[in-house]
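Practice problem: Anti-sigma factor antagonist
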Amino acid sequence: MFGTTATTGTVKSGTGTARTTGNAGTGTTTAPPPNERVLEDLDSAALAYAARIAGLPPSGRQAARDDLVRFALPFAGRLARRYRGRGEPLEDLEQVARLGLVNAVDRYDPERGSFTAYAAITIVGEIKRHFRDRTWGVHVPRRLRDLILEVGQTTAALTSELSRAPTIAEVAGRLDTPQEEILAALESAAGYSPASLNAPVGGESSAEFGDLVGEWDNDLESVDDRVTVSGLLHRLPWRERRILAMRFYGNQTQAEIAARFGISQMHVSRLLSRALTWLRQAMLNEAPPPWHASPTDTDPHDLRVTTRRTGDHVVVELGGEIDRDNSHRLRQTVVEAVTTGRPAEVVVGLGDVPLLDATGIAALFAGQEAARSTGVRLRLTGAQPYVRHALNVAGLARLME
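Answer key — structure tokens:
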């Protein structure tokens, strides 16, 4: 088998035997009888290999090396089969054992003793290293891995002795180890081959294990806030409540909301800010603060009306934005000022009015008609540039000073 050098031996494989012959130098080795069951004569083959490559350059040793490796493959396979059933495919274990065999052949030194013993240690070490480094699904400290093996062996022994599964305390007592470490070892053992989240659940369902794993629902934390806000929204006036719904539930812009209500975008921004401020204060206090929605509201953006009479002159001072929600108050105030007591002149001060929409202009037209029918002079004073421009466009410029 090794060229001109011959050895004879008997190779045991399974339950049968195979004979090999070869020549080692000038000596001859006599093979055992064909029916004798013995291990492979790896030591003789290894000595023949060492003698064969003694005078060869490295490039010429490959054929002899391959012959010895092929001769020892059954031996490596039997060592690999000792570790089957531990979660690793047998084919992978055989590959690892063959790698260990190749390493043993490459490092073999006949002066250090038996090749069989050296190859067995090398192959088994390679298999154990594979289990240590390649098979664990998660990193587990070596101390725990060793303890896991001891727990498994002790559990099997106690099960045989007690005819039942042992308790944690019994295993800990046998190993003289705290129960906490036994529990940690049992829990860590599950990390050897964790189940894949993409594995199918089974049956005809297409669901995977990952679909059954729950996750943290952030919406649960906001349930209390949602319920509280829902109750507080009903305390707001209809307009503010509607604006909040359009902005945060309908996802409309402030410009779209302003066009819907016939007010300015700035006014929408102020109403949103005021409503949100009130909601924030109501959320942080046990009792929500009152919402000032009456005509006497002191909010600087709501309509403020002050009327004073001096002789036959009436002065109406206005403040705040005038839109469809409060224009009826302007109409009522100007018409009453013109028709009550028939004054000589009614002056409407617009100095503190930053916004006047179409409904506000219509209210002033109503006051102009009432003044014409009663013969009372009506004047508009102090209009800001935006309001003045709106009055000019509407045709009320002649009422302004």
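Discussion: Confidence is low (pLDDT under 50) at residues 1-40, 294-301. Students who identified this feature from the tokens alone can consider the problem solved.
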